[in-house]
Automatic annotation (TrEMBL):
Species this chain originates from: Streptomyces albipurpureus
Name this polypeptide is given: VOC family protein
Annotated InterPro entries: Glyas_Bleomycin-R_OHBP_Dase, Glyas_Fos-R_dOase_dom, GlyoxalaseI/FosfomycinResist, VOC_core
Pfam families named in the record: Glyoxalase (PF00903)
VOC domain: residues covered: 10-160
Length: 187
């Protein structure tokens, strides 16, 4: 057990907001193949739907009448990783990552593209200066492929390529001014 304070078993659910629940149900069930597991009508006139991601974990969506419009570059990235700026505002959710088998990237990329989904290149996150490469290197620790859902929510298929080690914590966190809070020797 890695958490000595609370017995957490992973993500119960992540709740996002969509513009069109019918379009969201179509994408998450017909494109990503998730099962629609629960639907709720809210007393305020909204909806809250849950999709089974597997492993006892769910992704949920709210639909609210009159909700503010999508705000790329504020509440979500404006581009796919490897293709442009992925910065988002403080307090925003940058992306949702789904764990997939490491050997399925090419197959899943082809499936998504056959369904009309634009995907980024498969990225191999590593210890290079850029932080990723198109090829697997000796320092690759994770593979990823990114794409957007119909509401512009950035989604990722990801797989760890090795166990994480204590030596993987090498960088000091910075404060709001970019100043390190401690040195790597203090980590």
């Amino acid at each position: 057990m890695t958490n000595t304070e609370f017995e957490l078993g992973g993500v119960c659910h992540l709740a996002l907001v969509c513009k069109d629940m019918q379009r969201t149900v179509d994408f998450y069930t017909n494109v990503l193949g998730m099962k629609l597991a629960m639907t709720l009508d809210l007393p305020s006139g909204g909806q809250h739907f849950f999709f089974d991601m597997g492993g006892g974990q769910f992704i949920a969506f709210f639909w609210f009448a009159g909700a503010p419009e999508h705000s790329p570059g504020i509440a979500s990235p404006t581009a796919l990783p490897g293709k442009g700026d992925i910065r988002t505002a403080h307090g925003s959710m940058n992306h949702v990552s789904f764990k997939i088998p490491a050997g399925k990237f090419e197959e899943y990329k082809a499936k998504l593209e056959a369904k009309g989904v634009v995907t980024a290149p498969i990225l191999n996150h590593d210890e290079s200066e850029r932080g990723w490469s198109l090829e697997i290197t000796e320092t690759t620790f994770q593979r990823s492929m990114y794409f957007f859902d119909p509401d512009g929510i950035l989604l990722e298929f990801a797989a760890w390529t090795r166990e994480l080690r204590e030596t993987d914590v090498q960088h000091a966190p910075v404060d709001s001014n970019g100043v390190p809070a401690w040195t790597t020797a203090g980590a």
